[in-house]
From TrEMBL:
Region described as Disordered: 452-484, 732-776
GO molecular function: zinc ion binding
Protein name: UBX domain-containing protein
Biological source species: Salix udensis
A Pfam entry, by short name: FAF1
Sequence ranges assigned to domain HIT-type in this UniProt record: 25-57
Superkingdom classification of source: Eukaryota
InterPro entries: FAF1_2-like_UAS, Shq1_C, Thioredoxin-like_sf, UAS, Ubiquitin-like_domsf, UBX_dom, Znf_HIT, ZNHIT2
Length: 877
């Protein structure tokens, strides 16, 4: 009898005599129940059904189990104290929460999470954004936008700003002195120091000894490694700040950020100055990708971090580089664990290269003296100060901030810097009159102010002047100072270069195209401007300007200079044995010559019509003492104001009285320093005194330039030698590899050729054997057929012929044939015997000799005269 199935329990109908009944689960209503809840007597089939049938039953069950377990536990004093602290803290938080709820009653029930979400939180499960309701999502987004959630994040204090960072100590080999503790040692130390003990957040140093740099590379390390270190430290501090010190949460992302910010690690860059290293890092910081971090202000704060880290010394730098190496290794490890794509494999290769670079820099830092880092920090601090304290002429003090700059202010500042106007209102009026068109304003202003510059001087005394040659019209600033540095506004600092980079590029290009007549435009871009004017892109081509304003080419300038030298020698060189050795080159070529020879450039502007010119040239300029001094210490260049280049130079240098002499020297950033100018006649002694004073004042600058050039030349030569050695080694390796590859290919070809020949021989043998076998089989079949065609040997009789056949081997065969049989039957008989291996033979008789060839095979034996008997020989043909 089948069991009864009940959906509900009715105890009054149940009897021990009845068959056993089975109940359906009260929860899922799908399976038979196997268990009964001891509290509510509900039947259930499995553990999930028990957990969901009644929260009151499950909670009471868990509570009883916990209480039973707690009864058997004995707490010590430390545990009791911790529990009391937890309860007190919980009580205070509850009180604060109740106060907040009383203050926020106007928010209603919308700020409370749903019961389902609360249950998920209490159970310890994760909550995603999609799990929230529409109202909860709105509240969450509002909290993010208002910055309320950021208050929950504990602010991160960089380890290099902690006081413990000043006491970092490593061994002489670069390893950390304190080794990491085991779990047992760490737990015991934690108990000894108490609950307030916090492990040090200073990144540990290397675990293994740092090898000498000479063991890593065979040549001398680059002299620019200190600047590479600035770039690497900046990228590390940037990444730490970006991830709030928790780069381990996203190892791949943090390693990618390091590659993005650092030109040394990510772009294989090799900055040669601190300014170049910081420029790239600050440009990346101000890029749209990282602009949300604070832009330039955030970048300058990172520069402070770089300075602070360097001031901590070499041990702190080693710990930083060790932590950076671990960061890169962690990113590489996670990339390796993921499914590799082409883009990820490229990142992995970059991370491998970056990890090797960081390790090399770490070994290099370990070998440097401790006082080197304070000097490098001072250099970085100076570059940072020049970037923050830049003062503009028209805009006043430029304070570095992340706020955007008005584009009109940028145009006004660029116009002010080009013409050195100290009245911001005048600049604004000029630009407004030209609808803020910088190119049009420059062209109009330069054409109206060529002859009446506000700073022109009519003084005939000597004065130390400085000419700042920029990308547009030049302006001469006069002062009583004897400093060689350019006067006027100081050059833009690092921060201002970054801020005004786009407008500087545009305005610089416009300045070149404008074609304004002046020393600055001629010195900075004469060849380029002439080329633009030649193809119709100059300012005169589109404005109907005079063709005489075109700048001279290099060849024309050289020809003009050589004509002046020849004319000067004809006029003043015949009566005296000494004269200045004027170079037969254009001004720019002469300036380049002075730069390359580390000398000052002596400029003489010749005015043939001036009354004092002949006496000055004969008595002063061609004096033996002055000529010897100028020829030894200067590069001399002269030009007549009747010539195109001499006239332009007189306008650019604002020569107001002749004879006119000047001393200039090349400077940086397309600037030329006007050190001295002499107007009017002077005696040889006065000229010599002036030139000696200028030479003495310029000697330190020239010496520094010479030393820097020699250092650059040495570095370049070393680099070329290293590159040559590397190329030679590479070529040798390539030649060896090519020779090995060719030898391998030759051996493979020979082996293939031998194998082919062997295979062909085997095939030929097989084919010959097969053909021979086929031939033998064919002969055997032929003999058999011929033997069958002969029929049975006839008995002796009158019509039977007895034939004896002798073979060349001496064997004899005899057989009887019908006399009517043909000669062909004799051939068939011989063939059927198989004694001959040849096919071409004949049957002959000796006496008389008769050859029974193919022409007689149809004759019968009787007709051939072989009846009744015959003796035939087999003769091989």
């Amino acid at each position: 009898m089948a069991d009864a199935v009940l959906t509900s329990e009715n105890r009054s109908n149940h009897s021990p005599l009845d068959p056993p009944s089975r109940f359906i689960c009260h929860v899922c209503q799908k399976q038979f129940s196997h268990y009964t809840c001891p509290r509510c007597n509900s039947r259930y089939c499995s553990l999930p059904c028990y957990k969901s049938h009644s929260e009151r039953c499950t909670e009471s069950f868990m509570r009883e189990n916990v209480m039973e377990e707690m009864k058997g536990m004995e707490a010590d004093e430390e545990t009791k104290r911790k529990m009391l602290d937890i309860l007190k803290r919980f009580h205070s938080e509850e009180q604060e929460g109740m106060d907040d709820r009383m203050d926020d009653d106007d928010l209603g029930d919308d700020s409370v999470l749903s019961e389902e979400t609360v249950q998920k939180v209490l159970s310890g499960g994760p909550i995603n954004f999609d799990d929230l309701s529409a109202e909860e999502k709105k509240h969450f987004q509002r909290a993010v936008a208002s910055g309320e959630l950021s208050k929950l994040i504990e602010p991160w204090d960089p380890w290099w700003l902690k006081s413990s960072a000043r006491n970092i100590s490593l061994s002489k080999e670069g390893t950390r002195l304190v080794q990491p503790l085991t779990e047992e040692e760490a737990s015991s130390s934690h108990q000894d120091y108490g609950a307030g003990y916090q492990p040090s957040e200073i990144p540990p140093g290397p675990d293994t000894l740092l090898p000498p740099v000479r063991k890593l590379i065979s040549r001398e390390p680059s002299p620019f490694l200190a600047y590479h270190l600035v770039d690497i430290i900046y990228s590390y501090c940037f990444t730490q700040r970006l991830y709030n010190g928790d780069w381990q949460s996203d190892a791949i992302g943090s390693a990618t950020v390091v590659l993005s910010v650092s030109s040394v690690l990510g772009q294989t860059g090799q900055p040669e100055t601190v300014l170049e290293a910081l420029s790239y890092c600050l440009e990346r910081t101000c890029s749209p990708e990282y602009r949300h971090m604070g832009g330039l202000q955030f970048g300058l704060g990172l520069v402070n971090d770089v300075i602070h880290v360097m001031s901590l010394g070499g041990h702190a730098l080693i710990c930083l580089l060790c932590d950076l190496q671990k960061m890169v290794q962690a990113g590489e490890k996670e990339l390796k664990a993921e499914k590799t794509r082409k883009s990820k494999s490229d990142i992995r290769s970059k991370l491998k290269l970056a990890e090797r670079k960081v390790y090399f820099i770490m070994c290099w830092v370990h070998e440097q003296p401790g006082e080197a880092w304070s000097s490098l920090a001072a250099i970085v601090r100076a570059e940072k100060s020049s970037g923050m304290d830049y003062r503009g002429v028209a805009l006043g003090v430029i304070s570095v901030s992340s706020q955007p700059i008005n584009p009109y202010d940028r145009v006004a500042h660029e116009f002010t810097m080009l013409h050195c106007l100290e009245d911001p209102g005048l600049c604004t009026e000029i630009l407004q009159a030209h609808d803020w068109d910088l190119e049009l304003a420059i062209s109009s202003f330069t054409s109206n102010h060529t002859d009446n510059h506000p700073f022109s001087s009519s003084s005939t005394t000597t004065a130390t002047t400085t000419t700042a040659v920029g990308p547009s019209n030049a302006t001469i600033h006069r002062s009583d100072s004897t400093s060689i540095a350019p006067a006027g506004a100081p050059p833009p600092g690092l921060a201002w270069k970054i801020i005004t980079l786009p407008i500087s590029v545009i305005s610089g290009s416009l300045g070149l195209i404008s074609g304004a007549v002046g020393f600055g435009l001629w010195a900075a871009g004469g060849v380029l401007s002439y080329s633009l004017g030649f193809i119709g892109l100059g300012s005169n081509s589109g404005r109907g300007g005079d063709s005489s304003a075109q700048l001279v080419t290099v060849s024309a300038a050289s020809r003009e200079a050589m004509e002046f030298v020849a004319q000067f020698e004809r006029d003043y060189g015949s009566g005296t044995s000494s004269r200045p050795n004027f170079v037969g080159e254009g001004f720019m070529d002469a300036l380049t010559r002075s730069r390359n020879t580390f000398k000052l450039l002596f400029v003489y502007l010749h005015s043939p019509d001036h009354l004092d010119t002949p006496a000055f040239c004969e008595g002063t300029l061609c004096s033996e003492v002055l000529c010897a001094f100028v020829n030894e210490n200067f590069v001399a260049w002269g030009g007549s104001i009747r010539g195109s280049e001499g006239f332009k130079m007189s306008n650019s240098l604002k020569a107001s009285r002749f004879p006119f002499c000047a001393v200039v020297m090349p400077s940086t950033n397309q600037r030329i320093a006007l050190l001295q100018q002499v107007e009017g006649p002077k005696s040889p002694e006065e000229m010599l005194m002036i030139l000696q004073r200028v030479l003495e004042e310029s000697a330190p600058v020239l010496l520094t330039a010479r030393l820097e050039a020699e250092e650059r030349t040495t570095n370049m030569r070393l680099r070329e030698e290293q590159d040559a050695a590397y190329r030679a080694a590479l070529e040798a390796d390539q030649a060896r590899e090519r020779q090995q590859r060719e030898e391998k290919e030759r051996l493979e070809r020979e082996a293939a050729e031998a194998e082919r020949k062997c295979k062909e021989e085997e095939e030929a043998k097989d084919r010959a054997a097969r053909e021979a076998a086929e031939k033998d089989a064919a002969l055997a079949r032929l003999r058999q057929e011929k033997a069958l065609s002969l029929g049975a040997e006839p008995e002796k009789g009158p019509d039977v012929t007895q034939v004896l056949v002798r073979f060349p081997t001496g064997e004899r065969k005899e057989r009887r044939f019908h006399s009517a049989a043909t000669i062909q039957s004799l051939y068939d008989y011989v063939d059927s015997l198989g004694y001959l291996n040849v096919e071409n033979y004949s049957l002959v008789t000796n006496f008389p000799r008769v050859v029974y060839g193919t022409d007689k095979v149809s004759l019968s034996l009787k007709e051939a005269g072989l009846h009744p008997q015959a003796s035939l020989f087999v003769e091989l043909n």
